[in-house]
Amino acid sequence: MCSALHPAPNVSTGSLGTSPRFRAFTPRDLDGLLQRVPLSPEERLALRAVAAVLPFRTNGYVVDELIDWTAVPDDPIFRLTFPQAEMLPESDLKQMTDLLRHEAPKAEVLRAAHEIRMRLNPHPSGQLDANVPVHEGRRLTGLQHKYPETVLVFPRQGQTCHAYCTYCFRWPQFVGESDLRIATDDIAATSAYLRAHPEVTSTLITGGDPMVMSTEVLRRYVEPLLEIDTVRSIRIGTKSLAFWPYRFLTDRDADDLLRLLEKVVASGRNLALMAHFTHPQELRPPAVRAAMRRVRDTGAVIRCQGPLVRGINDSAGAWAELWNETTALGAVPYYQFVERDTGPQGYFGVPLARCHQIFRDAYAQVSGLARTVRGPVMSAMPGKVCVDGTAEVAGEKVFVLHLIQARDPDLVGRPFFAAHDERATWFSDLKPAFGASRFLPGLDPG
């Protein structure tokens, strides 16, 4: 039993005490939270306008333990969790601030917000067409099957998070528009699809954040997977270790959760928590370190990933510290992603050339144990495109790239070249080098 074998340590986290209760803050709390910051009424109005379009949610742990309020507005966790005016195009920001200033009817505000969202590419890379599987003539809209061996499952009850990241490419899940949400509670259909597709050896339970669900609900999605012999690995995507580590320590069903993780490991499957860490500041509280120890004690592996985001972690020092610290805590650095082409990418995106420079400079500062990390990686329409660097080939400066994962497995691992472009921030910005019409046979420009 986890309560006996893996006792929750007596972790003190300052004002939150040893057994804090989760307290969420939403847009209605934003003005009050911003009183901590010397902003003018007009500046606060602009942040409220952004929060009317893009999701805002944080919690007491993030506010009291992760943010250094003496460093705001430059504090990375503040920028990670609180809206910034520049996240919206200037004309859209003006429209929304005018509506809020004049106390426009709620329906008018919602209509304007919807129109702006539709211009922000809410579902990139074929999420609503190319990735949705079909079983017995029915589209399974809460699943994604992009790569032959992997299926993503979006539990309906897990389509929120303990706190929202401002850069999040899954922002459409959280804005209250059902047509934009990917979710399912049809566990029977999920199991039937997996049984019909034995090539699927790995499932990723994602969201939102599955760890917002109670253990009882999470179990409904996990245990049926243990009855499917062809599913050999189970992953759970979560930011909870960073934003609410008490999920694994002192929440009412924390011990039950660890027992569930132990059950998966005991079944002979690989279990990985795909932990989203964006900045080393998230690793400093004792609570997160204690939570990581408890998870690892179950036999689960913690793999760490996150995007490179302008104004938050766009320095080699931040990434080197993050990878060194996660490795010291027994976790495995996995991916450094490129900010995706959706939502506020125009504000948070970093040019690919600079992404690679940051990755290389950070990679040079870590030991071989941390060099499990891969990046910078774009999760684009054809697959996970890794920027390997720049080179001069036949007198032309080019990006050297390859696909780590692909819809078409024949494309995996084959190097290809794109014309160098200092301004490019995404795969669709790139053009084949040497005047070619495509990167590789079967791999066209984005």
UniProtKB/TrEMBL annotation:
Keywords: 4Fe-4S, Iron, Iron-sulfur, Metal-binding, Pyridoxal phosphate, S-adenosyl-L-methionine
SUPFAM superfamilies: Radical SAM enzymes
Cofactor entry: pyridoxal 5'-phosphate
Domain of life: Bacteria
Keyword Metal-binding: yes
Any GO molecular function: catalytic activity
InterPro entries reported for this sequence: Aldolase_TIM, Lys_aminomutase/Glu_NH3_mut, rSAM, rSAM_sf
Electron transport recorded as keyword: no
The protein's name: Lysine 2,3-aminomutase
Organism: Streptomyces triticiradicis
Lineage: Bacteria, Bacillati, Actinomycetota, Actinomycetes, Kitasatosporales
